[in-house]
Amino acid sequence: MDSITATSTLTAGSKDLHSFEPNAQRVRFLDQRMRSRLADSLRHIWEQGEALLQVQSDEFREFLNQLESRPVSPLAFSLYSEDAISQRYASLLVDPESDDSLNFEIFPPSREAATKCRRFIKDAFDLMDGGDPELAAEIRALLREIVLAAGTLEAKAMTFDGASAFMLWGAIIINANQPKGELTMVQMLAHESSHNLLFGFSADESLVENSPEELFPSPLRLDPRPMYGIYHATFVLARMHRAVKGLLDSGILSAAQKEIAEKELADNARLFASGIEIVDRFGKLTPLGKTVMEGAKGYMANAQ
Fold first, then answer.
1. Cα 88 from Cα 92, distance rounded (Å)
2. How far is CA 263 from the centre of its chain?
3. Can you point out the beta strands (E) in 121-278?
4. How do 145-149 and 171-175 pair as beta strands?
5. What distance in Å separates the CA atoms of residue 112 and residue 11, rounded to the nearest whole number?
6. Closest CA to 180 of 253, 264, 243, 97
7. Cα torsion for 94, 194, 110, 144, to the nearest 10°?
8. E strands, the chain, where?
9. Pairwise CA distance, residues 169 & 186, whole Å
10. What pLDDT, on a 0 to 100 scale, did the predictor assign at position 98?
11. 114 burial type by CB count under 10 A (0-12 exposed, 13-18 middle, 19+ buried)
């Protein structure tokens, strides 16, 4: 993905930081903040355990300087773990909407599936570049790595569409077997990048105060989910709705694409209504959580 090289003028208190509308500039601020937090934490660990750690001081200082000065691979955020790289990527499947007790199998995609998926990704960005360049720019800024994987093809087995994780900021996994076209891919990219956006928002403050033990009906899952997952799913649905509506309003879609998009809009609106009802009734939102979700609610109210 494109590098995030410009320095943001936003601050933690900027009114545009948590706005619902896409904004690549605020992602630069969030990325800098995430990298600075990681560097501070790693520096503290190193200072406390320097005598015991087998780390070259000069090399480690150089790494921290690089971490704070420019974007890095999402794998840098997994340094707390000593797992193999493949296991680190597998940890992406701890999705905000998922249950930690559910295990998914992850495999390399076939060459055919990977080739088709890459084409859908390119076509999706081409659509957004032409019809919604602000969204395309924000997604590029949020996602430094898109990892293509595959789930099981067994009909009754659990699988996944995509996944992301706070501890791998800037990376997502896409199941290369799942996308059915460029509009599906637009929504998938909007979906997973929106999780990353929420990760960036909540680096210093939680979005909800509900206990993880409290479970509620989810708009995107058959089984109950914690409020944190329902909050994520509901916000993501609004962002998916906006992604599709932006393309519809731009006039860039073909007649066949418009038909698909209008159905997707209706589905996203229906599922958002289901999710926001649960969030409004049972969610114990932090001030940050309220601010972020109000943006989604305001957009959906005006979009109907």
1. 7
2. 23
3. 145-149, 162-163, 171-175, 215-216, 225-226
4. parallel
5. 45
6. 264
7. -100
8. 145-149, 162-163, 171-175, 215-216, 225-226
9. 20
10. 53
11. middle
Tokens of 245: 């509506």
Distance CA 180, CA 76 (A): 32
d(CA 94, CA 165): 6
Q: What are φ and ψ of residue 172, in 5° steps?
A: -140, 160
Tokens of 247: 């393309």
Q: What does the pLDDT look like over 5-52, one tens digit per residue?
A: 444 455 555 668 999 999 999 999 999 999 999 888 888 888 887 777
Q: Which two tokens stand for residue 66?
A: 């690089």
93, 104 contact by CB (below 8 A)? yes
- pTM given for the model: 0.86
- Listed in sequence order, the residues at least 6 apart from 38 whose beta carbon sits closer than 8 Å to its beta carbon are 67, 76, 77, 79
The H or E element containing residue 32 is: helix 24-49
Report the Cα–Cα distance between both ends of the chain, in Å, rounded: 33
Q: Which residue has the tokens 């998916």?
A: 240
Tokens read off for 141: 């800024």
Measured from the Cβ of residue 80, the count of other Cβ atoms closer than 10 Å reads 11
Sheet containing strand 171-175, strands side by side: 145-149, 171-175, 162-163
Per-residue burial over 42-58, b if 16 or more Cβ lie within 10 Å, else e, is: beeeeeeeeeeeeeeee
What pLDDT, on the 0 to 100 scale, is given for residue 201?
97
3-class DSSP assignment, residue 148: strand
Contact (CB, 8 A) for 219 and 234: yes
